[in-house]
Design brief:
single chain; alpha+beta; 3 domains; two-stranded antiparallel ribbon; 10 helices; 46% helix; elongated
């Protein structure tokens, strides 16, 4: 989600999209009608069909307002839209970590979800070639082909194919079959190469899971470009393990490997179903973590607020004491002026009248200047501190 986006309920977004012609709705958001339609499409919201508003004006029957599709595993059940929508749509309350999580597509119980996904995925076979790659592997395979072409043109190049060995090809075929199995259930997967390694992830609804296929047990290695890598001539039969990468998400792990029950290729349906469940599980865990994080932030903000109030009250008390000191100084000056005036009246002191008048004006002006009431300094502590 973009930093400034807001979350709204899909049904609210659908109601908005069908409330007026697209051009009128776009004007409210300062968007083009094409831009608004693209945004709605990205959120899975269909706009009214052609001629819908003409039929409305003509009093003809029109299709009923569509309902948002049920939440799928790993989905947050919210639509992420531009912050400008907050002027026309209410912001959705966060999904509660206590659920309920059930929808027409997601049972409340995760064991039930696993059984459901296993049955829906059915039997999965792993093709012997990568002639029909999943879209999530296309960029990686194109990069491999570019390297292959360079090597064919020259006797030697630094950037040679990374996975043209039996084990590398096997790993790619396993990922390919797994991604297709996930796509069958409306989810996705993708992979890229970095430093000679495959980095893959599964996208379950709005939730990401890192995936890794590594070698089980000890094996021969070679140093390539500063990294220790499995020897390129290792046979395809080298035992492999596929796991939900703990480096990507340490709280949601799972692994499968070549063993007496069969190779990874025979477990793709089981793995795909378990990954879908792991995506839903992570989604639920993330809700609780988000609530706990929000509570920690609330406590920290309240602590900072209280500390700030203590500082303001201390400042208020200091200003009060300053007012008392300033008032005493002002009253002392006024008392002095009055005493000098009485001394002159009693004839006990002889001072030039014009000089005395000037001195009195100056002294009383200074008293007024520092007087906390007349100067307004008292306002610094008159009201109780508030944030």
């Amino acid at each position: 989600m973009w930093q400034n986006d807001i979350l709204v309920l899909p049904d609210d977004l659908i109601a908005f999209a069908w409330s007026a012609p697209m051009r009128d709705l776009a004007a409210k958001l300062e968007l083009s009608d094409v831009g608004l339609k693209k945004l709605l499409t990205r959120c899975g919201v269909a706009s009214p069909p052609q001629g819908y508003w003409n039929k409305i004006r003509a009093g003809k029957r029109v299709p009923a307002l569509p309902k948002a599709r049920p939440r799928r595993p790993g989905e947050m059940g919210r639509a992420s839209v531009d912050a400008r929508f907050k002027n026309v749509l209410p912001i959705a309350a966060p999904f509660s970590s206590n659920g309920p999580f059930a929808s027409a597509l997601v049972p409340e119980d995760l064991d039930e979800l696993l059984a459901q996904e296993l049955q829906a995925i059915g039997k999965v076979s792993v093709p012997q070639t990568l002639d029909r790659p999943h879209k999530g592997l296309l960029q990686l395979l194109k990069q491999e082909q570019r390297r292959r072409n360079k090597n064919a043109e020259r006797e030697w190049t630094f950037d040679e194919p990374k996975f043209d060995n039996p084990l590398g090809k096997r790993r790619l075929k396993i990922f390919n079959a797994l991604f297709f199995a996930l796509s069958k259930r409306g989810h996705d997967g993708d992979a890229y190469e970095r430093d000679g390694e495959i980095h893959a992830r599964a996208t379950i609804g709005d939730t990401y899971l890192g995936l890794d296929i590594g070698i089980v047990g000890s094996h021969r290695t070679v140093r390539q470009y500063g990294y220790l890598r499995p020897a390129p001539d290792l046979p395809a039969s080298t035992p492999l393990a596929l796991r939900i990468d703990p480096g990507f998400d340490r709280k949601n792990t799972g692994s499968w490997q070549d063993d007496c029950d069969g190779k990874l290729e025979s477990k793709i349906a089981e793995i795909a179903a378990a990954i879908i469940v792991a995506g839903e599980k992570k989604f639920r865990l993330c809700l609780r973590e988000a609530e706990e994080r929000a509570e920690r932030e609330r406590i920290e903000k309240e602590k900072q607020r209280q500390e700030r109030l203590v500082q303001l009250n201390q400042k208020r008390l200091q200003n009060l004491r300053t007012s008392g000191e300033l008032l005493r100084q002002a009253e002392d000056i006024r008392a002095l002026v009055e005493r000098v005036r009485r001394a002159i009246d009693e004839g006990s002191a002889e001072i030039d009248a014009s000089a005395l008048e000037a001195w009195q004006r100056w002294a009383l002006a200074e008293a007024d200047r520092i007087d906390p009431v007349r100067s307004g300094q008292i306002l610094t502590h008159l009201n109780q501190p508030s944030l």
